[in-house]
Amino acid sequence: MPKTSETPSFDDIYAAYGERILNLAYRMSGNEETARDLTQEIFIKVYQNLATFEGRSQIYTWLYRIAVNHVTNRLKKERRHRWLSLMDEKVSDLVHRDHVESKTHRTATGPRAERDMEATDRARIVWECVQSLPEKYRVPLILHIYERMSYKDVADTMGLTVSAVEARIHRAKKKLIKKLEPWLDQI
Known about the structure:
By secondary structure, the protein is mainly α. It contains 8 helices and no strands.
């Protein structure tokens, strides 16, 4: 279907949503470099498919749907690749790499540095728990909490009903609380 006069230009879409898509990709991947690559790939898809936008949803819902699907597919592919490559490495190499990485973390001193480190640790613990949720719960939770999307917008983005989104977010929160129980004294 040809682009309607209501469809914004690619430049307008990128200007309006580029940062939000980058944030979404970062929240879903947990890695800045990966998020930047994903954002670029997402906007290439948007550019290639803008003429197919039919206007049945809002442009950002269409864009977020492309983004969520692309990030989810890419992360699944990377996990599969990482798993296969880990099977080829020696256990001693993996242990040595983890030991070296843990030594490279700097420690700061002072009350402010301690508060900052505690806040960073709390955020890291919560984020790791969010990342460990099953995808069907993690994605709607990230879209709703971190991207501040309404249940309806999450439903449109994911192709679900509003009640299904509400149920998934509710279950995600319950699972998250359960995962955070061992950390309650630290967060």
